[in-house]
Amino acid sequence: MGMPALKLDQENTVEESIGEIKERLVRVEMTVEHIQDGVSELKADVRHLDQKIDAVEQKIETVEHRLLSKFDVVVQAIADLRVGQKNERVWYLLQLLGLLGVLAKAFKWI
């Protein structure tokens, strides 16, 4: 009589174990579904961020082109300024020589 009772307990424990395993399996499946949902949301967010990054890169490129064109204008203006300074120096030198010539005539050095 002790043996059949033991078998009944074992059968109950096996059935209970199967029930617990099924419950755990259901929980694991639900958790996996939530994880898959989260991963798909993350993928969508990454795609959205990629689009934003591409847009920012395009804006940076346009700003870079604008700055380079303005920088070229500034370099050209500096080059023109240097040429203008050379012309002004020659003009000032000629004026100084003319003034010295007038002074030399006035003091009868020439």
Q: What attributes does this structure have?
A:
single chain; 110 residues; mainly alpha; 1 helix; 95% helix; 0% strand; rod-shaped
Describe the protein in words.
- This protein is rod-shaped.
- It is 95% helix and 0% strand.
- The chain is an all-alpha fold and 110 residues long.
- The mean pLDDT is 84.
The beta-strand count equals 0
Structural class: mainly alpha
Report the sheet with the most strands, covering strand number, pairing sense and barrel closure.
Answer: none
The percent range for strand residues is under 5%
Shape type: rod-shaped
Compute the CA-based radius of gyration: 46 Å
What's the tally of helices? 1
What is the secondary structure topology, with strand pairs?
Layout: H1 2-106
Describe the structure in brief.
This protein has one helix at residues 2-106. The protein is mostly helical.
